[in-house]
Design brief:
Strand order of the largest sheet: 3-2-1-4-5-6-7
Number of domains: 1
Structural class: alpha/beta
Number of strands: 7
Number of helices: 7
Radius of gyration: 18 Å
Helix content: 40-55%
CATH topology: Rossmann fold
Distance between the termini: 39 Å
CATH class: Alpha Beta
Shape: globular
Largest sheet: 7 strands, parallel
CATH architecture: 3-Layer(aba) Sandwich
Length: 257
Amino acid sequence: MELKGASAVVTGGGGGLGAGAARRLAAAGMHVVIADFSAEKGQALAAELGSSATFVATDVTDDNSLQAAVDAAGSIGPLRVAVSAHGGPTAVSRILDRDGNPYALDLFRRTLELYLTGTFNVLRLSAQAMARTEPLDSGQRGVIVNTASIAAFEGQIGQSDYSAAKGGVVGLGLVAARDLSPMGIRVMTIAPGTFFTPAFKMDEADAQAKWGSAVPNPKRMGRADEYGLLVRQIAENDYLNGECIRIDGAQRFGPRQ
């Protein structure tokens, strides 16, 4: 799919994996709407990318907020790419603690609301906008890239809510690709392994020393730009559809890390 001159929306685009995707899509000639909850991060990246980007304050769990970001992208050019890369706080706790108390149900719901329901919200509103665009000569209108995690397959101790949410994102991919195929809209899922992002709240060298050695090859944590490169490759390759791609250096999570 030709990207130059079209628009993209990236949720969580102000930092981490989302910023990696935003930079790569902008370099491909797209105008990127950086849809992020953090105005500070989103505005900083928009300033870095200049005329290739626009920041829109966005909460993926709020329809009006998210619709504003999608509309902003469509007002600049045909929306061809939507990337869900948003994140947020998660708790790490066993289903039963040492005293036998159960995990708080509201925390479980909060994680699913952000990571699974929020991803579906991006999917449905972006698909609606793409379906209204003129198809390319190939018959394609766009691609939606969802972000899961290898925790969807090998959830670790204390990750019940996060693993369930990301597993739901994986399960959503194929049915969404089938649902949207008549409109020429593809749906792909990326499942990253251990990537260094600001969420670690430590220096990269310290994070690499702590977690990088667990990755078989290359023996380091992933980089946001590598995630962004994969997003661009997915967008440009029309025959990638309905699949989940692990990008993890052959890492497989054990029970705990």
